[in-house]
Design a protein that fits this description.
The complex is a heterodimer of chains A (114) and B (139). Chain A is α/β, with parallel strands linked by helices. Chain A has 4 helices and 6 strands. In chain A, helix 1 packs parallel to helix 2. Chain B is of the alpha+beta class and 139 residues long. In chain B, strand 2 and strand 3 form a beta hairpin. Classes of the chains: A alpha/beta (114), B alpha+beta (139).
Chain lengths: 114, 139
């Protein structure tokens, strides 16, 4: 599992998760993932285009970050999931945090909510 | 096509990654449809993890038995363990309509398996829990 982090000039953070968010994969990235999601008012884009699988520990990590962002007046948006990953997240009740568009749309949405 | 995968996993989370890799490779070699492939991988991770974390009342070594049967029309994933009696179908469905701030962080694994499977069966026989997930292929 790998994690790519990029902070845009207006404070929006883009986190790419590559590989399998299974038991081992989630354990290998969750500390860094939470650290990157930790901001005064978090505005986070999670790019799932390279995520091949998400199990319940991976969902738990994403849900925790969504809750934390919302509790601080921020927002987390997920983009580009593969079909099977999107289906899993929808079944887990996280469909409303998936954006149909790409990074530009997500960044625009988060910039509006600033 | 009739094919069978059998694996024994000891009740140690450290044994799980190798088990997941073995199943994943077996499924990939048989060109299993993506939804069934995903279900089997999720089932192995969720059910074995639950069993190891919550299934045993002692600190002894136990063996968890995993079997995946493939036919032209169906995949059947079965897990058998000698932990205390536990029927995952008795778990309440999580309330996904709650606002996200009020949602529980855990408890989604069994929910996902039930939703992704065509049907799920549980039995307790000869001191063992037996959970079978059926997936119609092509659905």
């Amino acid at each position: 599992m790998n994690l790519v982090f990029n902070e845009l000039s207006d404070g929006i953070r883009v986190i790419g998760l590559g590989g399998s968010l299974d038991l081992a994969g989630t354990a290998s990235v969750e500390t860094r993932f939470y650290a990157h999601c930790n901001a005064e008012v978090p505005r986070i884009v999670v790019d799932l285009s390279a995520t091949t699988f998400v199990g319940s520990l991976g969902i738990r990590m994403l849900l925790q970050a969504i809750k934390s962002a919302k509790a601080r007046g921020g927002r987390l948006i997920m983009i580009h999931p593969a079909a099977a990953v999107a289906s899993t997240l929808e079944l887990a009740g996280l469909g409303s945090f998936l954006l149909k568009g790409g990074a530009d749309e997500a960044v625009a949405l988060l910039a509006v909510g600033k | 096509m009739n094919d069978l995968f059998v694996l024994q996993v000891r009740n140690d989370l450290a044994a799980l990654p190798a088990a997941c890799e073995a199943l994943s490779q077996w499924l990939a070699q048989r060109d299993v449809p993506p939804a069934a492939d995903y279900l089997a991988n999720l089932a192995l991770e969720e059910l074995v993890t639950n069993c190891i974390k919550y299934g045993y009342d002692d600190a002894l070594e136990h063996t968890i038995e995993v079997e995946v049967k493939l036919s032209d029309t169906e995949m059947v994933f079965t897990l058998a363990d000698d932990g205390h009696a536990f029927n995952p179908l008795d778990l309440p469905e999580p309330d996904l309509n709650l606002p996200v701030g009020e949602r529980s962080i855990g408890g989604l694994g069994i929910h996902l398996l039930r939703k992704m499977s065509s049907r799920v069966e549980y039995s307790r026989e000869q001191g063992k829990n037996r959970v079978s997930l059926y997936k119609t292929l092509g659905s």
